[in-house]
Amino acid sequence: MTFPAVGIETEGSPVKAVASPDKTPEGDVAVNKLTSVCLIVEYDGSHYYGSQLQDNLPTIQGELEKAIAALTREKARINAASRTDTGVHARGQVVTFRTGSLLAPDTFVKGLNHYLPPDIAIKAAYPVVDSFNARRQAISREYHYSILNSRTPSPLRAGFYHLVTPTLDTGAMNRVAQSLVGEHDFASFASSLESKLRSTRRRVYQAMVEREGEVVVFKMTANSFLPHQVRNTIGALIRVGLGKMTPDEFHSIMDARKPGMAGPSAPASGLCLMKVNYNYPFEEERQ
Question: Is the CATH code 3.30.70.580 the one for domain 1-138?
């Protein structure tokens, strides 16, 4: 089976190997061919300005690239499968980078976790073919939005749940969420649209609201998402659950296809990227 593809940019010229490099006839250290490595990353996004690199601000990409440099003595640029905003968490973010290092996957996991701050962790590492592209070849992304539907706050859940004190009608929320499944124009659920965006149509494979005691979770899986799409969607669904928006009003917003209509967004703290899906598991590449 052919593995789906990754193209990662590296800055500057090719780097020298850091483990057991070959020697040229002249005795100089030979430059190893760069290979691609895929990482599964979990992080608490509370103290970061999103996943994407920003000047003079802490980001997930910035911390990962610093850890790679410390471990391999290379300057690498990572490519992430899904962009997460300020304060958003991830349990299964996928990133790739190119390296001349000969370190084993398990050594990458242990070594990078040694250099990373405690709120970012590498859960697994896999060698992948150079043509693999973590973002373009993902077939879907799974996000969960967690709500604490309680009359009192929970300090232990504060950074990962959005507190809603009135009782939510999760049955009504779930019925409305079903209308999101399928291919639709979700422009109304985007806070803004980038000029280079070619289409606002997305295919949603799952949209559901579940309750377990005081915890309410909105689960949404789609081929890709517009900016703030999940947070704007759950913001509207919460209003449905509170009786402040009717199902017809929700559907009218969806049909309007005008950016910003579904706002305001729910807070970032409740949102988590759970998983990025590909045609088959990364483990198959090692078989």
Answer: yes
